[in-house]
Write a structure and sequence with these properties.
- This protein is α+β, with helices and mostly antiparallel strands and 228 residues long.
- It contains seven helices and four strands, in the order H-E-E-E-E-H-H-H-H-H-H.
- It has helices spanning 3-15, 84-107, 111-122, 137-158, 162-178, 184-201, 206-225, and strands at 23-30, 33-40, 46-51, 59-63.
- A four-stranded antiparallel beta sheet has the order 1-2-3-4, covered by helices on one side.
- Helix 4 packs antiparallel against helix 5.
Length: 228
């Protein structure tokens, strides 16, 4: 393939916010036709461009489709070669749809797995949930003070952005309000679900998840010592 066409492929990659170093370009003969393969590294995805045997200006192409088997598409055009502008347009479409969709799925957080992961790593069984008494006024005040401290600590320890901090504050405020209508047993169950949802919102790893749990334990310890 002529260098000017290789450079056009490079520009299309950068213009679509991909990193050229994430691709590997290979030259080989396919069905006795000089070809290049643009392979997205560490993935099954590739875009194959074949030169006509008779002209540097005519090509056909195929690409990896996004599906369970990652099959190669048919060779396009079906019966003849085409100009490079067509190949370039199809390559850009493949980048922006098929490959982008694959990358988004790879980066997507599996919320169901995250919940299981957090439950296992936080050892929530170490907390006593047996107390079903209602909160006293003084207890609610102390919980409010403790949770307001948690807001500050979470923001400080995890360096949350404005949107994340709003999510955290809203969920913690809901915990404070819930002390007026829930008993301690039900409230602690709500705390666990709130802790998990905050951990998911912040996409915390194991160590940070444990740190978040330790911050929440301050609230539990405060409840357990009230009135003693």
């Amino acid at each position: 393939m002529r260098v000017k066409y290789r450079n056009q492929l490079y520009r299309i990659i950068t213009e679509n916010n991909f990193e050229p170093q994430d691709f590997e370009i290979l030259e080989k003969s396919i069905d006795n036709l000089p070809s290049i393969i643009l392979k997205y590294k560490n993935s099954p995805f590739e875009f194959v461009i074949r030169n006509s045997m008779n002209s540097y200006e005519l090509f056909d192409y195929q690409y990896t489709e996004y599906g369970p088997q990652y099959n190669l598409s048919a060779i396009y055009p079906n019966s003849e070669f085409t100009e490079f502008e067509t190949v370039l347009s199809e390559f850009e479409d493949w980048l922006y749809t098929t490959l982008k969709e694959y990358i988004e799925d790879q980066n997507e957080i599996d919320l169901w797995s995250q919940i299981k992961f957090n439950r296992e790593s936080l050892d929530i069984n170490s907390i006593n949930f047996e107390n079903k008494e209602r909160f006293l006024i003084e207890e609610r005040k102390q919980i409010s003070l403790a949770i307001n401290e948690l807001k500050f600590l979470i923001n400080e320890r995890f360096e949350t952005n404005e949107n994340e901090q709003k999510i955290i504050n809203d969920r913690l405020e809901y915990l404070i309000e819930a002390t007026e209508r829930l008993n301690k047993y039900d409230w602690k169950s709500l705390v666990i679900s709130t802790l998990l949802s905050i951990s998911i919102a912040l996409s915390l790893d194991t160590n940070k998840g444990k740190l978040l749990f330790e911050l929440f334990r301050k609230v539990f310890l405060q409840i357990q010592t009230i009135g003693q």
